[in-house]
């Protein structure tokens, strides 16, 4: 299931093997049968021709592709936000520096682009309220996970849609710069389904609901005041409850901390219980 129709043009092949580094003190096996999912950004790298990009994860560590999917194709560019599925092979300290950052050599199973946006200011919306309020939308969404990672607010969510939907949904994050909230930055997660949603009767149990999964990352680096490293944040959205039968205004609060190197955001890690019922769609949910 994906949140966007665009995919990186990638080459898939299996490497014949992976040679370990001679320095056993700085290089060790971290593999096994487990695979992992993580968010990060593409970073250009000279990796001996295997892959033109590594992945810099939100903890600041670098995932160097040594096996599996090689990222070389058209459309891949540095800074692109991605969602990666991989397994660890080996690791070493990055550039032989013992500063906590690591190079992890991975077998990449799959890579997908993540929709990434910056917050929209409420004053911008108000400047053309008649058109922009409707365009941004007020449709509910079931947020399943919300967390600060790197300089981002990351959201995973489910949305009830029409069967076999091909409608593109719009997502935005609106920062309230009009009403004073003390030191707190108020952010509202907004969704426009463009009519692609079940009827009230279907939501209340008189029909089958179809749910699609999506994810989005919002760059919060601009919300931290000059000279500061952190800011209290209140996240608001209109959410589905009771398996989609009801909606209510949901809120989360945390402190967003942006480190000097711009790679680590902390202070929010939310995982909701199952908020939806019915059949989950396996189709792509197109978002913009």
From TrEMBL:
The lineage of its organism: Bacteria, Pseudomonadati, Bacteroidota, Bacteroidia, Bacteroidales. Residues 1-19 form the signal peptide. Coiled coil: none annotated. It comes from the Bacteria. Keywords: Signal. PROSITE patterns: PROKAR_LIPOPROTEIN. Residues 125-244 form the NigD-like C-terminal domain. It comes from Candidatus Odoribacter faecigallinarum. Transmembrane segments: none annotated. This is NigD-like C-terminal domain-containing protein. InterPro entries: NigD-like_C_dom_sf, NigD-like_N_sf, NigD_C. It holds the Pfam family NigD_C. Gene3D superfamilies: NigD-like N-terminal OB domain (2.40.50.500), NigD-like, C-terminal beta sandwich domain (2.60.40.2370).
